[in-house]
Amino acid sequence: MKLWQKKGKLDFEVEQFTVGSDYVLDAELLPYDLKASKAHARMLQSRGYLSKNELKVILAALDEIGALHSKGKFQIKPEDEDCHTAIENYLVRKLGEAGKKIHTARSRNDQSMTALRLLYLERMKAILKEAKSLQKSIKSFAKKNNGPMPGYTHTRKAMPSSVEMLAMAYSDMLQDDAAILTSTIKLLDKCPLGSAAGFGSPLEINRKMTAKELGFSSVQNNPIHCANSRGIYESAVVYGMLCLMQSLNRMATDLIYFTAPEFGFFQLPGELCTGSSIMPQKQNPDVLELVRAKAHVVHGNLVQINGIVMNLPSGYNRDYQLTKEPTLRSLQIAFNSLRIMNKVFSRMKAERKRLKSAMTPELFATKKAYELVKKGVPFREAYGKVAQEFRK
C-alpha cells in the first residue's frame, strides 16, 4: 500500500512516471529516515500516542530494517515509491496496529525533508573536512616544492611568481569556499519535522524534542516556510558545491597546462595518469580534465534546481521531487573531486630546472620600470623606456 492510497488502482504508466528514480535514490536516504522515524516514535510515546511497548517494538523493527539495509537485503520496490513507504509497509506487516501508528502527526513531506536535511548536513560536513584536508596537502606541496616560477595574465608571461604563491592562492580559494559551506550548514540546521504537509498538525506534539534528538540546533517554525524551503535549500547546497568545484576547476585547468611537456613545471606521477589505446607514449591527465568538466555538471544541476523551484506557489508541490537527484549527485561529485585533487597535490612534484629556465627577462620588465621610478623618473616615462627595450 502507498501512504496515500485509498481505493482503486493507480494507472501503471502514471505510477512509473510519478515514482521516477526515487525508489533507487532512496537507498541513500533510508538510514536518515530510520533515524528520524525513531525520534518521531519517541516523541509520540512521550505524548501518549504510543504505549511504551509499542515504542519498543517499533524501535526494534526500525533497527531490523537498518540491519537488512546494511547487508543489501532491504529492497525498495517501484510500487513502494520511496523509502518512507517501504519502511512503513514493513512496520505494518511485522507489527500490525503498532506499525500503523508511526505516521501519526507527520506527512511524507516533512518526513522526506527531515531525512534529506540530515543527509545534506552529514555530507556537507564530510565535504568540509575533505576541503580542509586538501588545504593541508596544498600547503605541504608549497613547502616542499617552493621556488620561483613565471606568473601569467592573458596566458602570457607577466611577472615573477613562485610555486608557494600559486599554491597558497588555491588554499585561500578553499578557505572562502569553506566559509560558504559553513554558512549553508547553519542555514540547514533547522528541523522541519512536525510541519506535516505544510500546515502543522492539530495534535499536541513536541517539535523541540525531535529537533534536539536529531541534533538540529533549532526548529524550523513556520510550517508553510518549511514546505517553501524545499528546493531553495537544495539550491543553497548545490551552490556551495559549485563554489568548491569552480575552485577545483581553476586548479585543474592550471595543472593541465603546467604539467604538459611544453611547460613541464610540475610532474604528475604515472599512477594518476591514463594512456592512449593507440599512442604508446601518452600520459594523459584525465583526472584533471574530469574535475574540470564536473564543475560544469554541478553548474547544470544548480540551473536545473533553480528552474524547478522558480514560480512555484507556496506550499508543497510535487516538482520538489526532482531537486533530490541533482543535489545528491552534486554532493558526491564535490566529495570525489576533493579526494582526487588531494591525491594530485600529495604526489605531484615541481620540476625545478624547467621552472628556473622559464624565468626569462620579460618577467622583470615591471621591476626595471620601478627601478627607474626610484631614481626619480615618472612612472609613465619609465614604463615607456622599458617598453622600448621589449618592443619587437
N-to-C CA distance: 80 Å
* Total discrete domains: 3
Order of helices and strands: HHHHHHEEHEHEHHEHHEHHH
| Strand portion | 5-15%
CATH class descriptor of the largest domain: Mainly Alpha
The class by helix and strand makeup works out as mainly alpha
Low-confidence stretches: none
Care to count the β-strands?
A: 6
Average residue pLDDT = 94
Describe this structure in words.
This protein has helices spanning 12-19, 22-46, 52-70, 83-95, 97-100, 108-145, 163-188, 207-213, 223-229, 232-258, 286-309, 324-347, 352-357, 365-374, 379-390, and strands spanning 148-153, 156-162, 190-191, 218-219, 266-267, 349-350. With 392 residues, it is mainly alpha-helical. The protein folds into three domains: 12-100, Fumarase/aspartase (N-terminal domain) (Fumarase C, Chain B, domain 1, Orthogonal Bundle), CATH 1.10.275.10; 108-357, Up-down Bundle (Fumarase C, Chain A, domain 2); 363-390, no CATH class. A two-stranded antiparallel ribbon has the order 1-2. The chain has a two-stranded parallel ribbon with strand order 3-4. The chain starts with 11 loop residues before the first helix and ends with a helix.
